[in-house]
Amino acid sequence: MKDGTFLTAKEKTSIAKDFARFVESNFDPRYFTRALYSHLSLNFGFIAHYNLSGFVAARFADPEGRRRTFESIIDAPRWSFYDYSTSGNADLNTEIRNIAVQFRDGVNLNAKEEEKALIRAEIKALQNKLRTLEGA
């Protein structure tokens, strides 16, 4: 990576590593750094959130949010990958996209399994509620 207008090459490398570590940790919020939050929210068209915790909750707390976030990163507009329109962050944006592509299938598989588990839990809770109502 090379120095950009607002980030040094070292900072950009650190942000890319932060993203990879966050994904590899199964989205453990402890690994979602302020620098990663700032970069994702400013460079991939995500709406502003009140704070870092709100961003993590909206984008990574549930399977569907993670899937949508990865698709947004992967399908980011072309200008996200040109230096002239990203203050020299095209290399970092490309690396984050590459990480998202690398982990996309796992995220989608995990999302489907988590969604199935949530549905099964909801069904079980509704069955228990129905039994209670029928027994009353």
How would you describe this structure to a colleague?
It is built from 5 helices and no strands. It is mainly α and 136 residues long. Helices cover 68% and strands 0% of the residues. The longest helix is centred in the last third of the chain and has 46 residues, at 90-135.
Please report which band the strand proportion falls in: under 5%, 5-15%, 15-25%, 25-35%, 35-45% or over 45%. under 5%
As a whole number of angstroms, the C-alpha radius of gyration is 19 Å
What's the SSE pattern?
A: HHHHH
Low-confidence stretches: none
What is the number of strand segments?
0
Terminal Cα separation, in Å? 67 Å
Mean pLDDT: 84
Helix content, binned percent: 55-70%
Spell out the key features of this protein:
single chain; 136 residues; mainly alpha; 0% strand
Write the SSE topology.
Elements: H1 9-24, H2 34-43, H3 52-60, H4 63-74, H5 90-135
Short description:
Helix content is 68%, strand content 0%. With 136 residues, it is mainly alpha-helical.
